[in-house]
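Protein in question kept underneath.
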Amino acid sequence: MSLHDKPGPEASATGAELAERYRSEFPILRSKVYLNSNSLGALGFRSLRERRRFEREWMELGASAWYELWLDRLDEVRAAFGRTVGAAADRIALVPSISAGLTMVADALDFERRPRVVTCELDFPTLLYQFLGRRERGVETVVLESPDGLEVPLEAWEEAIDDRTALVATSHVFFTTGAIQDVAALARLAHERGALFLLDAYQSNGQIPIDAPALDVDFLLSGGLKWLLGGPGIAYLYVRPGLAERLAAGPLSWFGVREPFAFDPRAADARPDARRFELGTPATGAAFTAAGGLEVIEEIGVEAIRRRNAALAEDLLDRLREAGFEPHVAPSKDRRSAIVLVHHPRPAAAVEHLARAGIIVDHRPDLVRFSPHFYNTIEDNMRAVERLISLPGVS
């Protein structure tokens, strides 16, 4: 089945029916309670099939697979990811990681006239490191504080963004609180002051519906690792139409020029679209693996996934509260994602305790983190909370 030849969305299925329909596609669910999709999405049979297809074509065709099959397949992956954020394929660049995509964006910005980047302390550190590491080159990084440790109010962003700001760069969903930010409002604040806006959607893409053009995002970064079920080694960079041509010249690879197979050593005619930001030959095996995950996400539909995941997350929160744990999540239900965190005196020990019972979760400083996806069940939640309660020495 290709990425363009899929059954219709599964939006009409109930949550339980959705889980029942898809659990058999993910082998880990046969032996584990897997509640850790925000660290690594479960590997499914479709991703395995696509990976083996790549290996078979490499084995049988050698280099001719590039021209006969793989270049078209990479275009299909760009298009499939684009559909998860409401964008056309030429708005999408394939990059090996979020850090690589950030580097390409940062190197294309003009920090001479506008040296400031505004981020916040709840963002994943990769985002901050990119700009903090440019201090010696004159980049000033503003890291906003969270007054409650859960969210950053819009007023703080409004106060920090000024006419010296080149970029506002922040997360759609915070990795240690699961809180969903008001992306449209943040983009508006940035643009009112002449700054660009970059959205880190790694924690949200695949669990929260996204329409990047409607949100007026300039750049969006995501990847296959988490909710898109595509594994490591591939990330995606969305670039707003018309923006690539306006930016300063940054690193340029052979996949970033208009005619890569002309092999002209004297011409560096950059593509006018997002693929200008591609860092050379894409990780094709990773792209094939990611295609299998994208197929599942598209088949179900992110709107349906959001409904299912929200129900699972709220059930999990209720059970954790009843068990006496203090949640570390956004106070408003509509700003909560499927990342569920609770305070714990021994988070690493708790994760190990659950793992010994075949229950896979994760931890962050002082917190235990659960991240259910559509393939999880209420029974998974029950088993996880019952096991968490049983850790000796924790009352």
User: Anything to note?
Assistant: The chain has two domains: 65-297, 302-389. Residues 1-12 have pLDDT under 50 and may be disordered. The domain at 302-389 is CATH 3.90.1150.10 (Aspartate Aminotransferase, domain 1).
